[in-house]
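Lab notebook: predicted structure, single chain.

Context: the supervisor wants predicted structures on file for every construct in the current expression panel, including those that have not yet been purified. This is the next one on the list. No modifications to the sequence; it matches the entry in the shared construct table.
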Amino acid sequence: MDALEINNEYIDLVLSKPNEYAKDYDITVEKVANSNAKYKGKPVPFLYHPMFYTEEDIKNFNKISDIIISITNKVTDRYIRDEEFRKKFGFPDFIEELIQIDNGYDIHVPIGRFDIFYKDYENFMFCEINTDGSSAMNEDNTIGSILLETKALRDLGEIYKLDLFELINSWVDKSLEIYSKYDPTDNKPNVAIVDFVESGTSAEFEEFKKAYIKKGCNCIITDPRNLEYRDGKLYLDDYRIDLVYRRIVTFELIEKVDEIPDFIEAYKNKAFCCIGSLRSQVVHNKIIFKILHDEDTLKYLTEEEQEFVKKHIPFTGLFAGEDQVFNHVLNNKDKYIMKPMDLNASQGVFVGRDLTQEEWKDRLENAWNKDYLYQEFFDPFERNHIVFKDGKPEIESLKSIIGLFIYKEKFAGIYTRVSNKNIISGITDYYTLPNILVRR
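Prediction complete. Output recorded below exactly as produced.
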C-alpha cells in the first residue's frame, strides 16, 4: 500500500457517486467558510481531497528532518563561533549581535516549517526553510477536522484508519518543554504570542492562546510595540512576560527595529525566554542554500550530509557582482527561479519559464545587486486530485509543495499546498490540502 494507490482509490470512490459527493462538497464549503481557517480575512481555498500519506512517508519525513536539523545545527554553531564565516550572510550588525546571544535552551531552531517538493525518499527537493513565524498549523488542522467529517472520508474510513497530524497542542507541549530548560523552576510561565498586528495571523494565534491556557498558563497576544522593559522584565501593562512565542519575521523586525526599543533591549538582557530566538535567522534567510553548497561549508559535514546537500538542496547563487553572473542567468531563463533573500509568502519571487525573454530581462535588471538569489528551478511533483467544477467532480493534475513542521528538532506534521502554477503560495491560485495518515 502506498499513498498513490490510496489517492487513486479515493478518486474512484468520489467518481462512483458524483451527485452524492457533490452535495456533500457544498456542505463542506459552507463549514470551511464559517470556520477560523482564514487567510487575510478570507476562507482558505481547499479541495474536497486531502493529501494522503502512509507510514512509509512518515519514516521518510523523520529521516529528512533529522538530517536537515543536523546540517543546520552545524552551520549555526559555526556562525556563532566564526567571525569570518558570519560575513557570508551579510546580516546587519545588530542582528549579528542578537543571534550570538545565548537563548538559554540549547536549541537553535525550536520550530520550523521546512518546505520540500516530495515524491519519495529518493525524489525530493528543498524549496525553502521557514524558521521565523512558521505558520499554517491552524489551516491544516481546522480544514482536516472538517474533511474527516465528510461523507467521502467517512466511507474511506470504513476501509482504512485515517488520522490528522495534530499541530497546535503538540507545539504548546514542546514549547513548554523547551522553556523548562530555560527555567526549570517555573512550569506555568506567563506566555505572550508576539507579532506586529498588521502581519499576524489572528485566527491561528487565538488557537494557540486557547491551547496555552488549557495547559494552565496565562497567555496574551500582543504587538511588540506595546511592550515595556522595566525592572529587568518585559511587560504589557502589568502583565509580566516569561515566555515569548515569537511570530515576528526577522526582515520585519529589521524594518521596524526603531519602533520596538524595549523589546530589543529586553532580548539583549535575556529578560524573557524567546522561542524561537534570533538564532533561527541563520537558516531562515534564503542565502543558506548558497552557503550550504560552498566547499568550506561542505567540509564540516559528514559524507552522508554532503550528498544530501548536493542531491536535495537546489544550487543557489548570489545575483550580484560580476557581469558574467547577470549574463549567465539572463541566457538560461528556463533554468532558474529568482528569490529575494528574506521575504515571506513568495513575495518578489519570479520564474524564468513563466516569462518571455524580454520580461525576464526587465525583471533581472530590477533585481540586479538588490539582495536577490538565482536558484536552480525544480519542477514540482504532480498528483491527481478531485476538483469540483460547476458542481461536478473532475480529475486535475496539480503540483504540490509540502511543509515539514519540525518541533523541538523532530518531525511533527505537514502543511500541503497544490496549484497548477510554478509558484505555489498565497499570491497565486492555490489550494490548502489537509494531510491524512492512512493505515490499514
